[in-house]
Amino acid sequence: MAKLKTRLVTWDDVVSWSRGLAGKIRESSYRPDVVVAVARGGFVPARLICDFLLIDNLLSIQSQHWTEAAKAEDRAVIKFPYKIDLSGRKVLLVDDIVDTGESLALARNYIYNNWSAEEVRIAVLQWISPVAKFKPDYYFMEVKEWVWFQYPWTRLEDTYQLLKRLLKEEGKYKKEWSFEDLVNKFLEWYEIDVGKEYFKEAVDVLVRKGILKPEGGKYIVNFTGE
Ligand code: AMP
């Protein structure tokens, strides 16, 4: 059994899900004037939706809730608040996923209150219905059991953080690891294969952070000073 339910998402998945999501928006009567991508997870889907719906206007807002893979902060914040005038405009607010929904709810309120948009509708690839505080206006996939979607745009970030989490636990019992040991334990814990290149880069990050120390072709786990 995996320690964390994780699903690996490919670039092809992202394109086909975004195409499907755009189709749902097109079928509705909503004709957005502006797409607003929620940074950072909404960037790629928002850009693809602009393409599929032939929309020129693309803005962004950074509403942040989760700072580490599968670990939420207490509350969401708008990181760089700024004011613009979108009065009389219809907005499509795009993100990758509604999990708790905290960050999107905050972004939507912010846009109504500070950008004076006429209407704001929300579109996401995934909606985790049992935990979300609201149902998005448009979603490609309803997810009924919580899972961490390992999107391709956070491949390295997630891999290194998940590897670090694993080592915090397993490193208590085993100090010396080969590259293959690290990969195999990752596969056992998370049951997703991010590929050798990403594993290598994630190990390099941990070496740069001093958590892994290369020694005689192996890696020594070192969490002191963390
Ligand atoms: P939330 O405010 O809880 O809806 O989540 C905010 C952001 O965290 C999302 O837009 C994603 O970028 C990331 N995130 C939250 N939950 C997940 C998940 N289950 N899988 C992948 N990314 C997630």
CATH class category label of the largest domain: Alpha Beta
The residue fraction in helices comes out at 25-40%
- How confident overall, as mean pLDDT? 95
Catalogue the unreliable spans.
Answer: none
Assembly level = single chain
Q: How many distinct helices?
A: 6
Bound molecules: adenosine monophosphate
* Ends apart, CA distance between termini: 29 Å
The name of the CATH topology of the largest domain is Rossmann fold
Strand count, sense and barrel status of the largest sheet are: 6 strands, mixed
The domain count comes to 2
- Total number of β-strand segments? 11
Spatial strand order of the main sheet: 4-3-2-5-6-7
Categorize the overall geometry.
elongated
Radius of gyration: 20 Å
CATH architecture call of the largest domain: 3-Layer(aba) Sandwich
Q: What's the order of the H and E elements?
A: EHEHEEEHEEEHEHHEE
* Beta-strand proportion: 25-35%
Structure description:
The chain is α/β, with parallel strands linked by helices and 226 residues long. It folds into two domains: 139 residues, Rossmann fold (3-Layer(aba) Sandwich); 70 residues, Winged helix-like DNA-binding domain superfamily/Winged helix DNA-binding domain (Arc Repressor Mutant, subunit A), CATH 1.10.10. It is built from six helices and eleven strands. The strands form three sheets. The protein has a six-stranded mixed beta sheet, with helices on both faces. Strands 9-11-10 form a three-stranded antiparallel beta sheet. Helix 1 crosses helix 2 and helix 4 crosses helix 6. The structure holds adenosine monophosphate.
